[in-house]
Amino acid sequence: QVQLVESGGGLVQAGGSLRLSCVASGRTFSSYAMGWFRQAPGKERAFVATISWGGGSTYYADSVKGRFTISRDNAKNTVYLQMNSLKPEDTAVFYCAAGRGYHPALARGSYDYWGQGTQVTVSS
């Protein structure tokens, strides 16, 4: 199976920035669309951003547009989420996901593989 490992989470003040990374194990990484989701306490896992197989297309949840940027480096089997202007409501466990869906893949069910998550906490 494809294994995904997220890193880069932590504690940051409101207005600050974090960059999350997700490293995939498979050599077919470039064949997958990649997505980021997040889950706050007591809430459902929600879509954040996705990027197409080749990295040419991106799509963002309205709540993060203009603040977050998803990118990928297929040579490194890595997808990134650059998060700027962070808000307390961004606090959540962030999950990386991989799937074969047609862009943009917004639903959890569009993704076949998931990482274990990395905690992002934004303080006010």
What key phrases describe this protein's structure?
four-stranded antiparallel beta sheet, mainly beta, 124 residues, globular
Description:
The radius of gyration is 13 Å and the shape is globular. The protein has strands at about 5, 10-15, 20-25, 35-40, 45-50, 60, 70-75, 80-85, 90-100, 115, 120-124. With about 120 residues, it is mainly β. The model has no long low-confidence stretch (mean pLDDT about 95). The protein starts with a strand and ends with a strand. The chain is built from no helices and 11 strands.
Structural class: mainly beta
Q: How many DSSP E strands?
A: 11
The run of helices and strands is EEEEEEEEEEE
Integer average pLDDT: 94
How many helices in DSSP terms? Answer: 0
Quaternary status: single chain
Strand content: over 45%
* Main sheet: strands, sense, barrel: 7 strands, mixed
Distance between the termini: 39 Å
Short note summarizing the structure:
This protein has strands spanning 4-7, 10-13, 18-24, 33-39, 46-51, 58-60, 68-73, 78-83, 92-99, 113-114, 118-123. It is mostly beta strands and 124 residues long.
What's the structural blueprint in terms of helices and strands?
Layout: E1 4-7, E2 10-13, E3 18-24, E4 33-39, E5 46-51, E6 58-60, E7 68-73, E8 78-83, E9 92-99, E10 113-114, E11 118-123
Parallel strand pairs: 2-11
Antiparallel strand pairs: 1-3, 3-8, 4-5, 4-9, 5-6, 7-8, 9-10, 9-11
